[in-house]
Amino acid sequence: MAPRIARCRGAFLALVFAAAAWSCSSGGGGGGGSGQPPPDVGGSGGGPPSPAVPNLYALAPGGMPVGVAVPAGNFANSLLGSVARQQVVDAHFSQLTAENIMKPSFLQPAEGTFDFADADELAAYAEARGMTMHGHTLLWHEQLPAWMETFQGDAADWASMMSGHVGTVAAHFAGNATLVSWDVVNEVFSDSDADGDGLHDMRDTLWLANIGPGYVATAFRTAAAADPDADLYYNDYNLSGVPAKLAAVLDMVGAFRNDPDPVPIDGIGFQMHVSLAWPEIGQVRSAFAAAAATGLKVKISELDITVNTDGNGASLGMTELTPAVADQQRARFEAIVRAYLDEVPAPQRGGITVWGIADVDSWRRTYNSNEWPLLFDDAFAAKPALTGFADGLRAMP
Ligand code: 9MR
User: Fold this and answer.
1) What is the pLDDT of residues 96-151, one digit of tens each?
2) How far apart are CA 244 and CA 196, in angstroms?
3) 256-283 pLDDT per residue, tens
4) What is the per-residue pLDDT for 397?
5) Which domain holds residue 156?
6) How far is residue 348's CA from residue 368's CA, in Å, rounded to a whole number?
7) Which domain CATH number covers 280?
8) Each residue of 143-180: b (16+ CB within 10 Å) or e?
């Protein structure tokens, strides 16, 4: 299940990346791609200054996708209505994920009534610029339409309803060469291991309650039947920091494979909503290595790095992003990108996606208005974090 298109992939040598990147961008058709690059945020700390970052995606070894989650549809900050966001996205990213508008509540708002208009518009935006899209998400326990939450029926009815959604959505995009992969099921596992077996338990969702644990495999089989060419991912959070949660995912993958009729799965998505300090980088490396050992693709699907939020979600008290903290965030982005490239062999790299364009858009602000977790600031200027991400990519030829 190979990616279908490339956006100037694999054509860049580290020494010539800048010139090549600009010629690539100007041929990509993006309005913002030929505009002014964000300012050079330069290097800090020891060593020579880092080169400018005109096109982040052009630095990715092997043309690996470098993605971003974007608002679309009726969201006030929609990419499609924001020139400032388009300039950043067109210059720096080769893949889009819809932050919200491809979740079930948006695509099937009423039972049997599918609305693909906003998703198709976003896919057309990506296609026009030679970007790919990662679909998010066929199934989740959040952002479900009210009618799904109150659905009445037995297990067979529920399975049929679930497969109807998954199959219809996957089939809609099956002929679309821009959509190369899907999060098939998001966040199946809970944050606890009640029976102490070393594996986090399945999350108590309406899918589990009404269909039983087999719903996950059914969703994957349904998606594969509807779109045999797309890469199919399992996606979850805390996989790099909580070994018992990753163990549960790997156990599920093993069960999929050992099934007499193996369940189709292509990759594991690490959301990576992390902080400066957690998880410790050695743990991140071990987690990537363990996932890669399955032979599946591994994708960082929702990367953001908080600097002002403690382990319980409370603010650490900062009121501005100081240069010193911004530099720590730069180093942290570099370390995580490096760890990914070191631990995941090239053919298994599904790419790295950041969960939002600029700090002003981040879901993290919902919980802490003084948070700055992304690569661009509230004015869409590049932060040191962008240099860190770029330096992480540059470290791997
Ligand atoms: O970023 C998304 C935010 O705008 C939505 O309000 C929220 C609803 O729960 O979902 C956010 O995205 C989530 C993603 O779909 C799945 N992983 C966790 C993300 C952050 O909550």
Assistant:
1) 999 999 999 999 999 999 999 999 999 999 999 999 999 999 999 999 999 999 99
2) 10
3) 999 999 999 999 999 999 999 999 999 9
4) 62
5) 31-394
6) 35
7) 3.20.20.80
8) ebbeebeebeeeeeebbebbbebbbbbbebbeebebbb
Q: Is residue 219 part of a domain?
A: yes
Q: How many A from CA of 69 to the centre of ligand 1? A: 10
Which residue's structure tokens are 């099956």?
Answer: 174
Distance 258 CA to ligand 1 centre (A): 32
21 assigned to some structural domain: no
187 is catalytic: yes
Regarding the beta carbon of 105 and ligand 1, being less than 6 Å apart is answered no
Q: Are 207 and 252 in contact (CB under 8 A)?
A: no
**Pocket of ligand 1 contains residue 99 by CB under 6 Å:** yes
181 inside domain: yes
| Within a domain: 15 | no
Ligand 1 pocket, 186 CB below 6 A? yes
Model's pTM, two decimal places? 0.90
Q: Is the pLDDT of residue 359 over 60?
A: yes
CA-closest candidate to residue 91, choices 384, 395, 376 = 376
The count of domains in the chain is 1
**Predicted confidence (pLDDT) per residue in 318-344, tens digit:** 999 999 999 999 999 999 999 999 999
Q: Is the peptide bond before 306 cis (omega within 30 degrees of 0)?
A: no
pLDDT at 92 over 80: yes
Measured CA to CA, the distance from residue 236 to residue 114 in angstroms comes to 26
Say which residue the tokens 């363990």 belong to: 290
By most ligand atoms within 8 Å of CB, the mutation choice from 191, 355, 367 for ligand 1 is 355
Which of 99, 302, 334, 343 is the catalytic position?
Answer: 302
Determine the average pLDDT of the residues in 45-70.
90
